[in-house]
Design a protein that fits this description.
Layout lengths: L22 H14 L1 H8 L10 H28 L1 H8 L2 H15 L2 H28 L6 H27 L10 H11 L2 H5 L23 H12 L2 H12 L4 H11 L2 H10 L1 H15 L6 H31 L11 H29 L5 H25 L6 H23 L19 E2 L4 E2 L17
Antiparallel strand pairs: 1-2
Length: 472
Amino acid sequence: MSPKANEPPAEMAPYDVHWFRSTIFQVIVVGGVFFCAPGMYNALSSLGAGGLATPWYANATAAAGYVFMAVMCIIGGVVVSKIGVRLALLISSTGDIIYAGSLYLNSKNGTQWFLLFGSIVSGATDGLMYSVEGPIITAYPEPSRRGRMLGLWVFMRNAAPVIGGAIIFGLNAKLDSSGAVSLQTYIAIIGIMCAGPFIALLLSQPEKVQRKDGVKIAFRRMDWSRTLHEFYKVISSRNILLLCPLFFTSWFYNSYIGTLQTQFYNIRTRALCALVVPWGDIAGGFAIGYFLDHATLSVKQRARWSWVFLMALNLGLWVWAAVITRELDSHGPGIDWTTGSIFGKTFSLFIMFEFATMATQTLLYWIISHMSSDFIVLSYMTGILRGVECAGQAVAYGIKSSNTTDWLSIGLNIGLIVLSLPFAWAVVRKIGVEEFKEIDFGSDSVDEKTDAGVKVKEKDPEDVSVSDTKST
């Protein structure tokens, strides 16, 4: 165990950085692209079934999209290592435009085949985007600002559903019937999405990024044999495998919530959800981000206390969901914000689910940031995180692609969370107690792992960052 395991990292003299090359600007660029692409997709998702009249076919196409997203997330790190971060971000910003267009055509003309195609393209490009943004938000920020940078990223990615929700709410506030949202809703969202590729061009290459601590970020170039070897070592590492059950279940709830909204809420109340519910994401990301940067607590305390609280909160919300589902069984569709207590109960549940889920995902990224200091390795790790999450969503949406009982979703979610707890704890208990060993790529020396681009030394786990990387 490191003797410095629970001590805060030593302060370094700040370096002057150009704002265009700063770490915060890179996070803002990534957040801006997410705002225009997956963020606006999430705004439509907040309506339930992408704003369509019925959830079943939309859920089936979403399941197909998440399958492709899962595959691309997992292999996306390899793609990023070959084509670079800027081109990968540019390509990944285009797929959601096609998906939003498919929603428009399906709502207008009933073109279902294009909805399936759009969902698959969107899933693949979003998977590539998650492989780009993951290592940027975990490897770029200075260690003392890592939690707050994660909070900023959460805000940027969820500002889109809020602003998109405001547009949706403004266009649909007078529609107090059930069914699909107005066609103008899709046109407005598509217009915003089209700005994404232009924002992606503002991203700096890793070697040009300037950090306040003067550390250079290495982006290693390798041949295919070395790339696949390192990729295999990462995906088969024990700590990543132990976290996979929690990855799988962390967004499993989404299909349940979206289906409830479509089945029981009228159009204008679904539009209100698109406007207000994402604030739960923003609150969850900032709250956990600031707690994880709380220097008066040890790293071990921050990791354990946040994990225990969030796991208890997630389980408690599913108990709450079970109570509300029983009430909804005796309540018909068409719930409006004027309906009464049943609206207040379900609406607050939706917000709290978003709070708990985004806080949990932010914690998972923070945990991964302690497991390696190498940009490429972090790309693989965060891609696996999002890939396994998407696999869980594919299963969840597959279950809700037909009119199955809500009790199946509730039982599966509770069971998966309970199953994941002992495996995740085996990793969480190491944070702040012992240093994670850098993944050994075989031919590296003991003191300096030149092939991995990582210099290993005795240090605070909180300070495991790209400060130890160097170009090969």
